[in-house]
Amino acid sequence: MSGYLTASTIKSLREQRGLTQRALADAVGVTDKAVSNWESGRGLPDISLVEPLAVALGVSVAELLTGDVRQNANRAGNLLRARFYVCPICGNVVYALGEGSFSCCGVQLLPCEAEPAEPGELAAPAEELEPGSAGCHAISVERIEDEWYVTLDHPMRKDHFISFIAYVSTGGATIQKLYPEQEAAARFRAGMSGVIYAYCNRHGLFSIRTPRRQ
Question: For residue 166, which of 66, 52, 53, 84 has the smallest C-alpha distance?
């Protein structure tokens, strides 16, 4: 259908982003069967899903609809491709709109690679989890009025704690620094769908998509 997205566009963009059909489905609030149907030409996303689908695929709505994706390092969508750098000595956090060269405390910083986190409500009991597993770092994201309320059931000791929680969307990035003995929680003004990040000083960076707004 002219002027609407095609099966090949969805599949190509999904694969370029390194997403599975299940991951894309979770990001936009549908089943992986629905994504499979879109990519095989057996159906098309509802018009209400076009904007969250564009966000999940890291493109503009116009690019998604036309299939004409232009690589522009400065466009807002690239906020979701940005990088976190964390100093292992002082815990300083650097957020950059792409990879760069940064140092702190005399140490060359490397970009953090985020592991996918389990939703908080799906986490297994703590005694059943392996230390350092993604399940140990399950992130709960709840919409409360006009805020995202983010919590983790995670130790907040001096030797093992969540160093920061961040919310990144095409509208910008907000980082809340945390310290031992604080609650592993943060609140962000809810905007566009995006990604929540949590950094554990022992096990690194974890991420999860914000729930689809109802």
Answer: 84
